[in-house]
Amino acid sequence: MATTRGPHESNEIENQEWLDSLDYVQERAGAERVRELISLLQIRAQQHGVQSQYPGNTPYINTIPLDQQPPFPGNQTILGMAQGTFPAQLRNCCITYPYEI
């Protein structure tokens, strides 16, 4: 008598088959071949209208807790001026140099 599998169990089996296949390719052909296959799968998924939930690059995530970070090195106001984000009260002032440019 055949047993009927639910969708969850079928997904688990299919997932394991994909993972086993990936392990096989890694062992036999190496990381470069795995990257190639993943790239091909991403392309095919896009052709089917599936958008990747993982961007090509990830945002920076600081793993050092705030209470363990060292003090900011340097003057944040001057750094802001260099980046164009300095405080409003300083936006209209002139920067003078001790020598001619």
Describe what you observe in this structure.
The protein is mostly helical. The chain has helices at residues 7-29, 31-47, 76-83. The protein has a domain at 9-52. It is 48% helix and 0% strand.
Q: What's the SSE pattern?
A: HHH
Helix percent band: 40-55%
Mean pLDDT: 77
The poorly predicted ranges are none
Overall structural class, as computed from helix and strand content, comes to mainly alpha
* Residue fraction in strands: under 5%
Number of strands: 0
Q: What does the radius of gyration come to?
A: 27 Å
Overall morphology = elongated
In brief, what are we looking at here?
With 101 residues, the chain is an all-alpha fold. It has helices spanning 7-29, 31-47, 76-83.
Describe the SSE topology.
Elements: H1 7-29, H2 31-47, H3 76-83
